[in-house]
Amino acid sequence: MQPIKFIVTGSTAAAIHLSVLWLLVDLTQVNPLMANPAAFILAFIVSYLGHSLWTFNHKQHVLRNTLVKFLLVQLLCSFVLNQGLYTLLLTYTGLNYLMASFIVLATIPLITYTLSKYWAFK
To answer: Which of 90, 113, 114 minimizes the C-alpha distance to 100?
Structure first.
């Protein structure tokens, strides 16, 4: 059940990420590489709350401790990998910015699930 909850929460966060990215790029003409961090921040909030309260709902975890660990997982793995792969795809391929973001968002979850389950929310 936990992997399904992780997928649902992660998919919701990814949908928010892609929606915010689209809004910022298409409606306000922000550069995709600049819009991506803003989209990431909003998706992070949804992801943390969903994983903390639902996916890894351990009564014994201290929210402050899990927040710091989850933030590290997200910043080091998700954001660095996300922004790095996104930059590479936008720079070296002719992919649309949303397709590039979708590809990146589909490749990171296995790493974040493993680190979240066995370290951040342990």
So the answer is: 90
Condensed to tens digits (0 to 9), the pLDDT of residues 45-59 reads: 999 889 888 888 766
Among 21, 116, 39, smallest CA distance to 74 is for 116
Closest to 99 measured CA to CA, from 90, 108, 91, 111: 90
Local structure of residue 57 (DSSP, 8 states): -
Mean pLDDT across the stretch 23-41?
94
Q: How far apart are CA 40 and CA 84, in angstroms?
A: 13
CB atoms < 10 A from the CB of 17, how many?
A: 25
- With CA atoms as reference, report the closest residue to 47 among 82, 5, 84: 5
